[in-house]
Design goal:
One of its GO terms (cellular component) is Golgi membrane. InterPro entries: GOLIM4. By secondary structure, the protein is mostly helical. It contains eight helices and no strands. The radius of gyration is 70 Å and the shape is rod-shaped.
Length: 444
Amino acid sequence: MYCFLPVLKIDINFIVSKVKFNFPPPPPVVYEHRSRLEKSLQKERLEHKKAKEDFLVYKLEAQETLNKGRQDSNSRYSALNVQHQMLKSQHEELKKQHSDLEEDHRKQGEDFTRTFNDHKQKYLQLQQEKEQELSKLKETIYNLREENRQLRKAHQDIHTQLQDVKQQHKNLLSEHEQLVVTLEDHKSALAAAQTQVAEYKQLKETLNRIPSFRKFEPAEPQNVTFTQMAHSPQGYNTAREKSVGELQELSRNSEVRQKHEAMSRRTEEAKPSPPTHKEAEFQTPAEQNPQEVEPREPEEHQVEEEHRKALEEEEMEQVGQAEHLEEEHDPSPEEQDREWKEQQEQKEAARLLEGHAQAEVYSSARPVTNFRSPYEEQLEQQRLAARRDEEAQRLWEHQEALHQQRLQEHLLRQQQQQLLVRETAQRKQAEHEEGRQQQQKQLR
């Protein structure tokens, strides 16, 4: 509607100008037409005014709408500007963080390269040290195996010597059987001598009852017979002293034989170790005749040697067990030194035991000056046998304690090695986990 207003205004002006300049004197019809036109013009003016008012209203509304849009756009622009400033500040912060992270990454890279080089150097150094230790351990193992081979060879030599000693022991047993046979002969001779002594006692008692034999001739020389010396008191006294000496010798021989029987019976019942049995057997001939001590000294030495070798055999068996353990577990040189010291202590104890046995043999082989009763001799022999048994038991307990101590030390050493291996494995695993975590952090 607003677009037709200028055209309408132009037509009205044209019409008015035309009416003014070209209109003749108005006739009545023209007057009506003019009034009609004026009415239409007035109507048009009213419409134009109304349209103008509407246009003003529209203009005001449009202005308000424009102002409102402008305010909205300004507020939106200010909001966008604020958001832009915030994003710009965030961008600056992120840029700064990025630079800081780049700096940290560079420093961590330098630290990683430095630690990697340090660990690599330490690894190479540890590898060299372990290789040196491994070479030393191989050398010690070779030396220990060589020494073990030599010890085995010595053990075999001692075993062959032990077999020879066992053969000698068998020979000595056969000699002992021969001595038992001779002892039976001595027993029979002793019984015959006891009957003669009984007859002699009866004869002496009958001679003592006759007083006429005491008043005859003086004594004859000592080489006369008993019937010739009995005619004088001096000869009778000489014969009596001689008979008393013979009786004492016979009684002493009988006591010695009884003691020998008691010792042989006790040894058969007790059944001690072979060296102790041989010592007990060879003590009796020395007590039976003190003059035979010197010829039987080699046999006593053989008994002592046999006793010593038996002890050495036991020691070597234990040493063989220890060597077997050493071959299985490859002990250290300190353990070998400690075992060598223990073997030396065992040998010292064996020497002490041999010294006691030798002293007992020599004490039993000495000539008997103070004659003791068979009961005292039996008590003495029982005491010596108890002492030997006690020393043998003590030596066995000492060896058993040493063996148990070695086993405990070996088990403790194995446990320590297992703990060390476990700790090293855990340490390596922890280091591996730490390295992997560091790599993951660096990759992130």
